[in-house]
Design a protein that fits this description.
It is a single chain. The protein is built from 13 helices and 22 strands. It has 466 residues and is an alpha/beta fold. Strands 1, 2, 3, 4, 5, 6 and 17 form a seven-stranded mixed beta sheet that branches. It is globular, with a radius of gyration of 24 Å. Belongs to the class-I pyridine nucleotide-disulfide oxidoreductase family. One of its GO terms (cellular component) is cytoplasm.
Length: 466
Amino acid sequence: MIATSKNFDVVVIGGGPGGYAAALYGASAGLSVCVVEKEKVGGTCLHRGCIPAKEFLESAAVFRAVESAKEFGVLTTPPSIDFSITQNRKQRVVDQLWKGLSGLMKGRKIEIIEGFGAYIGDGKVEIDGGEIVTGDSIILAAGSVPRTIPGFEIDGEVIITSDEVLAMSELPESVAIIGGGAIGCEFASMMSDLGVKVTILEAMPTLLAGCDKDVADVVVRSFRKRGIAMHTGVAVTGHAPGEKGTNLFFGDGSSVHVDKVIVSVGRRPFSEKLLGGNSSVNLDQRGFVQTDEYMRTSEEGVFAIGDLVATAQLAHVGFAEAIVAIKTILGERTIPVDYVNVPWCIYTHPEVAFAGLTEEAARNAGYDVIVKKDPFGGNSRARIIGETEGVVKVVAEKRADGSAGRILGVHMAGPWVTEQLGMGYLAVNWEATAEEIAHFIQPHPTLSETFGETVIALTGRGLHVG
């Protein structure tokens, strides 16, 4: 070990969304902060996750727009895709954001040390088995890596994960996606739009488990119309590589031949070798760091945030947890993250966004509920842009007099709903009633009118919604 005189108020292990958010928030409060990052600040989200995936999905959206241009009187030759150009553009976007983030951290005098950091106890972080820095507080934010499944070892060519998908310079002719969650469905949507033959294999009974059924059904119907093969409630049992691609076996003897298999079965915490020496930080059986609601671990002065803990693996949840940790370190009044009501966004076509309880979850929790749904087919702006697939669904608590009270959940599928969720998220988290939200005016013609119309209908006096 190489001793060092470097001591900071806070040392953060990991420079992904949770880690860099903690660093920026702490530095803005006057704390001296060091971030230890094994690769580049920005983490998986910026370099191999959220940002590159959404850039590819935007390329698919542009391709769809060109394909349908003739419906608007814009005549074009049939479009084609050069995915290497898409890849280059993605990298430019990522690099610009990375440089901006690096500059922001430098401007706030955050010290960034490149290397693999391990917490060894007593406020000490060892870097690459050598240099040691110390902190009055330590924040563990090492993130996560893709999960794999037995029999499908990642080779980077035929059997791949999201990491390899986001590095491709050309598209395969066919893929099978193991996993029908948010990431798997986003890849399926993007690739199908760009002409790839897609098969989804999901062990659960439905795609997008955890979403409200009416919202998930919108995506399933759209996928079916676009020729995406979906097999739910099935297990994959193995594969047999050939000269090109592989034969994938699933269910009761079914098979499909594809060029590539994308394993998209979630992510696991990257906690290997994170702790050592005299650390007394506890992990659970799955490798997650155990924390309380203030992100404090079992060792005093040590916190854990982001994908390293067993909470929603969302960048914005990592941001929120970072703020909780820093405010706790500062001794300020802190409101823990309300995980039931965090916003969720899925960037399939059509998009999905929601916050709060689904109708099923609300009923299972003992609520008597009133539900209203408004399809985007009746929205004038949706008609104008030619994107009418989708629905807005609002779940409200039913009062004793039969009227709609507190809004428990807002669930959307349709055009740009990821940009419309803000109103619904605030309504749920402010525990607003339907009547209170119905009072606010929605501009016309906009997509957001659909949410407004749905809430007005909950008051029993709907305009266009019964």
